[in-house]
Predict the 3D structure of the following.
Amino acid sequence: MYGCEWDNETGKVKGYDQHGYDGEDFVALDLDTEIWIAPTPQAVTTKMKWDKNRALIAQKKNYLTQECPEWLKKYCQLYPGPQRVKHVVFKSPSSRVTCHATGFYPDRAELVWRKDGVELHEGVEKGEILPIIDGNFQMSVDLDLSSVRPEDWQRYDCVFQLSGVNEDIVTKLDKAAIRTNKSKSDKGRKHVMIYLLLSAGKSLAILIIIATLVLAVISFIVYKKRTGERQKQKSLLLDTLSKTDP
């Protein structure tokens, strides 16, 4: 992996130059100490050779901490960023209401339940922020409504807050908007679900700027199942590294 991170909020920059083999770390450049780190004994010989090339290390450090972040900033200005965050609010037979937000980036976000504009803590259970397959994130927060009368639902809302974005996304718990779905497996119990797709518009257009992004070139070796062929690849790689003096 070769690339950099830039955080628009803090201005912090972090670079990466990491090499791996067969799914395991091999060597990685520590930009603070300007030396190569060898996590395995097999990589020590390569580390010692590469540590001697101070000019190459200085060149890599300059690119990863100076040039790469500048390219990243330019890219962020051109990329429009995600435009919408999807909220799903559903009620289970146990009278717990779940607010689910998905499709946001980065993972510095909050999802809370409020009553009359005041954040609730009692009867609230927060879930973890989890990644989804497209690289964005999702999270959920539950609220116990067992003691709440249906006519009071309108006093509750779910609020999504993203770090660096001033405008919150507020979803009211509107009983009139609920659709009731029933299946044979429910045995007479009702599952009510609200689907809300809120457009954040320009308020989320800066997500890509706030986000910690990685411009990385990920290289990997696809090895075959047969042990003989995999060992042959490993021997060729180690032989190449032993002859290389960057």
